[in-house]
TrEMBL record:
<dbReference type="InterPro" id="IPR023048">
    <property type="entry name" value="NADH:quinone_OxRdtase_FMN_depd"/>
</dbReference>
<dbReference type="GO" id="GO:0009055">
    <property type="term" value="F:electron transfer activity"/>
</dbReference>
<keyword id="KW-0285">Flavoprotein</keyword>
<comment type="similarity">
    <text>Belongs to the azoreductase type 1 family.</text>
</comment>
<dbReference type="GO" id="GO:0016652">
    <property type="term" value="F:oxidoreductase activity, acting on NAD(P)H as acceptor"/>
</dbReference>
<feature type="binding site">
    <location>
        <position position="10"/>
    </location>
    <ligand>
        <name>FMN</name>
    </ligand>
</feature>
<feature type="binding site">
    <location>
        <begin position="137"/>
        <end position="140"/>
    </location>
    <ligand>
        <name>FMN</name>
    </ligand>
</feature>
<dbReference type="GO" id="GO:0016655">
    <property type="term" value="F:oxidoreductase activity, acting on NAD(P)H, quinone or similar compound as acceptor"/>
</dbReference>
<dbReference type="GO" id="GO:0010181">
    <property type="term" value="F:FMN binding"/>
</dbReference>
<comment type="subunit">
    <text>Homodimer.</text>
</comment>
<comment type="function">
    <text>Also exhibits azoreductase activity. Catalyzes the reductive cleavage of the azo bond in aromatic azo compounds to the corresponding amines.</text>
</comment>
<comment type="function">
    <text>Quinone reductase that provides resistance to thiol-specific stress caused by electrophilic quinones.</text>
</comment>
<dbReference type="Pfam" id="PF02525">
    <property type="entry name" value="Flavodoxin_2"/>
</dbReference>
<keyword id="KW-0520">NAD</keyword>
<keyword id="KW-0288">FMN</keyword>
<protein>
    <recommendedName>
        <fullName>FMN dependent NADH:quinone oxidoreductase</fullName>
        <ecNumber>1.6.5.-</ecNumber>
        <ecNumber>1.7.1.17</ecNumber>
    </recommendedName>
</protein>
<keyword id="KW-0560">Oxidoreductase</keyword>
Length: 217
């Protein structure tokens, strides 16, 4: 049975978040392909993981039998998150853009699961090649050729970290202009937002089926 690790990080609840809606479309299509599978859902907005601490960080570079009680406790929590990634057949991440970057809750999760010698910078990583789909929603547009192209730090950052450092197989789905229905100054862009959202929903379902087919092959 296939396991999907589903990470949400939007502070907006269901019904108000585009990244959640698009991720849900992926998950629904995934579950159609894997009715007996497992979905592990982490809502980082509702249940944030601890930011990395000195104990959690230094424990990753020390032998377990040398850990202090503080290191042992912090590292155990970190290992739980790492094992969820290692046991996943596919990963789905909702990553809305906040102030040109990712939510701090998602950064905290990443800081915990990136462990040099286990998940990162090693040929023996159990997660290498795992397909990960990132729903990178944003209130405006940062596409090539737009005035704010140079402010696109979400795809650039996650592509480098997930793809290059962790060796995951990364695909992005990018619904844009999500603030158009809420900002009067962007009212002329509502049709473009609606088209972008519709395409993202379709792309999410198609990507889920593609990943499911790849795993079944």
């Amino acid at each position: 049975m296939a396991t999907l690790l589903h990470i949400d990080s939007s502070v907006s609840p269901d019904g108000a978040s585009v990244s959640r809606a698009v991720a849900d479309a992926f998950r629904a299509a995934w579950e159609e392909q894997h009715p007996d599978g497992t979905v592990i859902h982490r809502d980082l907005a509702a249940h944030p993981v601890p930011h990395i601490t000195a104990d959690a960080h230094t424990a990753g570079f020390a032998a377990p039998d040398t850990h202090t009680p503080g290191q042992a406790e912090a590292f155990a929590a970190r290992v739980k998150l790492i094992e969820e990634v290692e046991n996943a057949d596919a990963i789905l991440i909702g990553a809305p853009m906040y102030n040109f970057s990712i939510p701090s809750t998602l950064k905290a999760w990443l800081d915990n699961v990136v462990l040099v010698g286990r998940t990162a910078m090693t040929e023996d990583s159990k997660i290498k090649g795992t397909p990960v789909t990132v729903v990178a929603s944003r209130g405006g547009s940062y596409a090539p050729g737009t005035p704010r192209e140079g402010f696109e730090y979400v795809q650039n950052y996650l592509g480098a970290l997930l793809g290059e450092m962790l060796g995951l197989d990364v695909e992005f789905i990018v619904p844009e202009l999500t603030m158009a229905p809420h900002n009067p100054a962007m009212s002329d862009l509502v049709p473009l937002f609606e088209a972008s959202r519709s395409k993202a929903l379709d792309d999410a379902a198609a990507q889920a089926k593609k990943v499911a087919g790849r795993l079944a092959a």
